[in-house]
Amino acid sequence: MKRIPLYPFAFVSFVVLALHAANFRFDHGIGIRSLIILNIAAGISFKAFRYFGKDRQTVAYYAFNLFIFILFYGQFHVTIIEKADFFSEATLQFIIPAVWIFFQGAAILGWHKSSTRKLITEALSATCFVALFVSFLRIGSLNYQENHYYNNFQGYKSPQFLTPVEEFELKGSNPPDIYYLILDGYGRKDVLSEIYGYDNQPFLDYLSQRGFYIANQSHSNYIQTPMSIASSLNLNYILPQVEPRLLMLKQTNILRDNIKNNIVISSLKERGYTTIAFDSGFFHTVNPDVDLYITKFVEINVFEQVLVANTPLGIFPELFDNVPMFTFTTHRERIDYSLEQFNHIPSNPSPKFVFLHLVIPHPPFVYDREGNPIQPKRVMGLLDGSDFLGDVEDYRIGYVDQMIYLNEILKKTVDNILIQSATPPIIIIQGDHGPGSMLNWDSVDSTCHWERISILNAYYFPDQDYSDLANNISPVNTFRIVFNHFFGTEFEILENKAFYTTDRQLFGQVDVTSELASSAGCSIP
Description:
2 domains; seven-stranded mixed sheet; two-stranded antiparallel sheet; 9 strands; 7% strand
C-alpha cells in the first residue's frame, strides 16, 4: 500500500507554529484552535481531491498549493501593493489575482508535465518537515528563555508587581458617572507645536470652555501602553526591581491580568457602579469581564485575527463585517463602532464607570484630517517609534491628520456626554503616552523622552473644583485624586515620575523624569 504524502499537514502546522514563534507574547495555546482546524481542513482537502480519482502524490501536491493560496495570498497581496507604487490600488485588485492564478496554474501544469513527481514529493516533504522541526526548536528555545527569566529574576513568584495600595473604602452619596477615555499616543500642546508644527490650542480652548481643567505640563509615567494603563488603574508605580521585559512574558500575563482586575474597577463595583468597556483591539486592554462589554465583532483571538488577515478573506474584510481581522479596515471599523456606540452610553443607568481605549492618534494612520479612510501601502501593524514602517515625515504628517479628525469627533462625544447626563459626570481624557517619531526601542539615549512622555491630560469635575489638580499631574495620581475628591479617601499624592521601558533587552526601568523639562537633546526639525 502506497504511503500518503503528509507534507501538506506539516506545511499548515509550520505556518501556525512559525506565526506563534514570531508573536511569542501571546498566551500559551492561543494557536491550538487554528492548528486543529487547519489540519482538519487539510484532511478534508485530501478526501475531496481523492474523490476526483487523483493519485496520492497529486492529491498532496494539490492540497499543498491550495494551502499556499489560502495562507499566503493576503500577505502576497499586501506586499505587491506596498511595492508597486506605479499601479493604482483599483488596478492591482485585478492584476494581483491574475498573477497569482497564473503562477498557481503554471505550478499545477508543470506538475502534470513533470517526469520527476516522486523527486518533487520527496523534496517538498523534506522541506516542510524541516521547517516544522525548526519552528518547534524556535518555540522551545523561546520557552526556555522565558522559564530562565521567570525563575531567575526577583518579583515573579507572585502576580503582584505593583507597589501595594493601602486598603480603602469609597464613601459619599450620589456618586457621579465616570468616563475614562484613553487616547493612545495623544501628545501635549507644546510637543505638537514644536515637533509637529501643529497648534492644538483651539481644541484645548474648546475643552476649557466646556469646563475642563487642562494639565498643561502633564506627562505619562511609562512610554508603553500596558505599563501606563496598569499603573493608572491600580493607583501605583510598577515595583522598581521589575524588569519590563518580564512583564511581557506570555506565561505570566501579569500586565493584562492587572489591567483586567484593576483596583479602580473592583472598588467602584463594590460601590455599586456598573462597569462598561469597549473592544480596543489591543491585547492588554481588551476586557470582556466587565458588566457590559461592547464590540462589533465575533470573538476570535488575536492570533486568529492575524492568521485570517493573511488569507483571501483579509483582502475583502467588508464582506465579512463581523469577523475581526488584523487589517487596516477592521482597525478603522473598531474605532468607528466604539465612538458610535459610546454616544448611547450616557442614557444607561447610573452610576457607571466607562472605559474607552482608542488606538488613535497612535499608528497606524487610517484616517485623513477629514475622517476619510486611508489604506496604507504597508503591512498592518500597531508599530510605533523605531518600528514604524515609514519615515519620520510620514509619521508626523499621518499623526497630525489623524489627530485633527479625532479632535472633531471628541468634541461631539464630549458634548453628547454633557447634554445627556442626568447629573454632571467625571470625564478624564488622557494620553497613555505621547507620540513616537523620535522613539528608539533599542536605545534610551537616542529617544526624545520629552516627545514620548508628554501627554494630553484633561479633567471634567462636576463641582468644577480643580484645586486638587496640579498642572504636572501624571496618570498614576489620576484616581488617587478622583477618589480623594469625590469618595472621601485619603491617598497620598505620589511624586510624578517617568520611566523609559522596553522589552527588547534586560536593563530595567530607566528614570527619565529629569529629561522632561525641555526638548534639549531632541532633534527638532
